[in-house]
Structure formats: C-alpha cells, structure tokens
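Q: I'm teaching a short session on how sequence maps to structure, and I want students to see two examples side by side rather than one. Could you give me a first protein with its sequence written out and its structure tokens following it? Keep the formatting plain so it prints cleanly on a handout.
A: Of course. Example one:
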Amino acid sequence: MKSDSPLNTRSSSLESTITPPTKGRRDRKLRRIVNRIHLWAALIGSLPALLLCLSGLILVFEPELQSFEEWAHASVQPTGERLPLAELLASVETEAENAVVYIALPQHPEQIALIGTEDRQYHFVNPYNGEILKSTKNPAIIMQAVRVFHTSFFMGEFGTWIGIASSCFLVVLCLTGCYLFLKRKLTARTVFRIRWKPTVRRNYDLHAVAGIVTAVPIILISLSGALIGLGAAWRETILFLTNSEFKPRPKLEQAVDRYEWNFDFATILETVNNASPEGMHIDSISLPSEPDNPIRFRLLYDWATRPASWAFINPANGELIEFHHHWDYEAGALIHRLNRGFHSGELYTEAMRWLWLLLMIAPFILAYTGYRQWRAKKQKP
C-alpha cells in the first residue's frame, strides 16, 4: 500500500514541476534545429530556385510568347480565300526544294503559316499565295533558350540535377517554414495579419503570410518539376507502379511512298474534326518522314494547351487509323501527361496559368523578406 508520507508528496510535486520545462526544452531544441535547416536550405537553394521561378514566370505564357515570336517575323493582309492545304504544301516543296514534315496552322486571318521541311528549316509562308516570306532553323530562339535554361541552366544533365535539387530545397523550405509558423498560437486574426510598422514586424508578417498561403501549391509545383526532371526514370517508375504503358504510335500496315499519297486535305480535316471531342481544334500537323508512319494531327482544347490529343491518318487513302484522346490513356501514361500540364499551369483552364503567375512571384517576396529578417538578426549587438 502506497504511503502518503511527506516525502512521497514532495516527490510527486517535483515531477509535476520538472516535466513541463523538460518538454519545453525539447520543443525549443527542435525549433532551433528546424530553424537552422530552414536557414541553410535558403542559403544553398535560394538562387537556383529563384532562377527557376523567373524562367517559369516566362514559360507560364510560353504558347503565346512563342507564337508572338514566330508570327512577329512577318504578317500578311488577308486577300480572299487561303490556298487549299495541298496546294500550299506543293508550293512550299517546290520553292524550298525539300519535303514538308510539319505544319502549324494559322489561327487568325493575319497570321502566316509555319511550315517545316525535312532539311530542318522552318518557313514562314503566306497562306493566301504560298510565298515563302522568311526561312530559319529556329523560329522561336528566345523561347527555346528560356526553356533550356529552365530545364538545365545551359549545363546539360548536370544542370538538370541542379534544378531537381533546387526543387527539393524549395520543398524543404516550405515544410520547415510551415512548421515554424504553425508552432505559434494561431487565430483567424493573426494568420493573415500584416503589421506594417515597425519594419522588422512587417518583414516577418509578409514572410509568414506569403509562405503559409502559397506553401501547398509551391510544394506541388516543385515536386512535379523534379519528377519531370527525372525524365525516363520517373516515367518508367509510374508506369511500373500503375502496371500500365503508353499507347505506341501506330504504324502503317503497308509502307506508302510520299509520291503515292492519294487524299484530299479538306476531307482529312473534316474526318479529324468529326473524330475529336467537342471543344478541340487542330493545332499542328506532322507529315511522315518515314514511309510506314501515318500523318499525325495534334489537337488542343480551345481553353487549354495541355494535355494534347492525337489523330493518326493513313496517307494512302486519308482514313482515320486511330484517335488518342488523353483520357483514353492508361493510368501511368495519364498521370505522366497530367503532371506536365499541372507543372506548366496549362491543365484544362486558362485561369490556372494566372494563378501560377502569382505563385511564381511569391518566392521572390519570401526571399526578400527572409533576407531582411536575417540581416536584422545579424546586426543585433
């Protein structure tokens, strides 16, 4: 039987007074460790992460900027009806002395047609008379440079791994920042409160509010970018985990020489449009460079540039071979495609890209306010 002696009473009293401070010391120690991780992740990963965000800001509107760069080379005044596509291609092949392999259709009356030939030249063509206005090996050199910088910092595979590491550092920054923020006593008033004076409190509040509001989407964007950077390794892993595979591009049962093509482009366009879901339009056409390849049509939704769907046409007779709507892909292939669309902000809705634009601004606010807080602590006596 337990005795209620003064010694036992004193012992239990000591336990009750010692335990809380011990727990408090553990919390403070953990907070210091997390704060140190947050600081070093910022010092190591901030610069490349900010460069990724800066190039990402530009690439959010890559389709429009690329089109602007391409169509800026020349524009035309509408003069009656455009040439039938077959006549346009024949005119270009005669003047360029090479077979056409790619066609980007003009979406507006003033736009020119962008046509690629098998010698890897791109030609800006007047769609009303077939005249080649300009030829170049790279029709959108600025946007291509931005894209290469975003994916590899112009350093090849090594740069790609720097980008993957930077994305991981950004995830660590968000997670540790959320931990430090959520350890505070939170109310609806304090979460979004920004005290504009004094300066130290303003920087702290801006840093905290911008971080907690954007943490989840920035983590998801960073992880999706890291997965894209892994390339084939990520693709094969997701296909293995979902026990699925990509639909292979169809091949012709019998090879067809380019000079044996027998079809009407107007009929083909009608066939493709009839096979495509409502709300999609033809974006570009890839003509086969090999005799066993079909003609490939890329189709996009009117309100989004990803994911794309594909139609494959037999050049021998103009019949539809297959239509690959992205929803028909197996789970792994669909996840892979949706991941790319999510990362670029081009997934199904135009509003998503504007949201991504705002999200890419947040890391600059976080970097500035975090740096100001760090400097203020360093300057304390």
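Q: Perfect. Now a second example for contrast.
A: Example two:
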Amino acid sequence: MGELEIWTSGAGIPGAGVRRAVQAEADGYDGVVYVDSQNLSGDPYVAMALAARATDRIKLGTGVTNPVTRHPAVTASAIASVQAESGGRAYLGIGRGDSALAHLGMAPASVPLFEDYLRRLQGYLRGEEVPFAEGGDVDRLGLANRPTSSRLAWLRPNQAKVPVDVAATGPKVIAAAARHADRISFAVGASVERIRWAIGVARAARREGGLDPEMPFGAYVSVVSRKCRYV
C-alpha cells in the first residue's frame, strides 16, 4: 500500500494563490491544486510558479485542466516549467472539462478526444517525438528545414517527469485513465462502495491492456469544517 497523501484546493486568484500554498504547507497538507477555469480564476501555472518560490515542500498541481483550451504541447510545457521551478513538486490534474469549457459555450470533451490528448500529453512530458495531428499544414510555411514531429526540446534530461493525474467519474474515462495516466483521482463521492467500484474498473482496464493492475488511486472528497463559537 502506498503512502497516504492529503491535498487541498485553491484558486489562482492573483495575490491569493501564494498565500493559500504557504498556509497549506504550514498546516501540513501534502499538496495543493489550483483551478484551471479561465473565466472564473487566474492562471494556475502562474500561481504554481509563484507558490513554488514561496514554499519548500508542498506539491503543486492543477485541479483540474482540460484537453480543449490548450494544445497538449502547451500544457506539457507549462507544467514542466513548474516542475523545474519547484524542484520536482509539480503534478498535472486533468479531466474532460467542466466550468472552463462551459464558460466558452462548450460541452466536456469526448472520451476518444480525451484519451488521444492523454496519449500525446504523456509523450511530450517524457520528452518524446510526438507525431503531428492529422490535418496539419506546416508545408505552407515553406521552411527549408521544416519539423516532421513535435517535442519539448528544452526539457532537461535529468528532470523527473511530471505525473499525470486524471479526475474520473464514469467507467470510460476511468478506463482511459488507467491506460494512460500515472494516477487516478475518482470524483465519485465519498461512498466506500463507489470508490471500490471505480478502483475495480481501473484495475480491469489495466489488466486488459497488459499493465500492472496497481497504480496510485485518490479521490476528490468535499470536507466542510464548521467552527462554533460559544458565548
């Protein structure tokens, strides 16, 4: 059994994101995630980069980004930059998209699109050559030495890969995450039965893909603390 971690969440509101990370580290949390919802919050990567300089231990992640508002190379470059600035404390949380897409008049990404994005994203984060997506028109530039694939050429060879953590609810997304992610955080509530079901779906998908059924699992659980003052 892996080590238990307790994370908290925050928003990249300018001026507040750093304070949130500093307080969370002082309170003993293992990590803090920042919302990636451009109409409702500031940029999470800016918040994480600033928080990395103001903290020493706490892990920093997106909670969560999506496969639509940024090209996978852009997402990979942003979180890899946070990884470098934080000394290896970055995590990338990603889902199909919620408020970030809703405020652009869009529905969550389809599961096939999401799975393809995960595949390409992981390639970038590993420093691999990633094939261009179909329909590209780079030939129109007329470059003498045009690229034939895409990669993050600036990645440091000794930099640890950023873990990708998928926020998953339904069986199709859980299965896609099991095949391509480094971790899965289930958004199925706090019911033990529901979490047990989700873990079973993930393990079955990994077995079908010829992978070790065990991987790090987590859960998004809402916790409310109410302080009472007695007079």
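Q: What should students look for in example two?
A: Point them to this: The beta strands are 7-10, 31-34, 59-62, 90-94, 130-131, 149-150, 164-168, 183-186, 217-219. Also worth mentioning: The chain has a mean pLDDT of 93.
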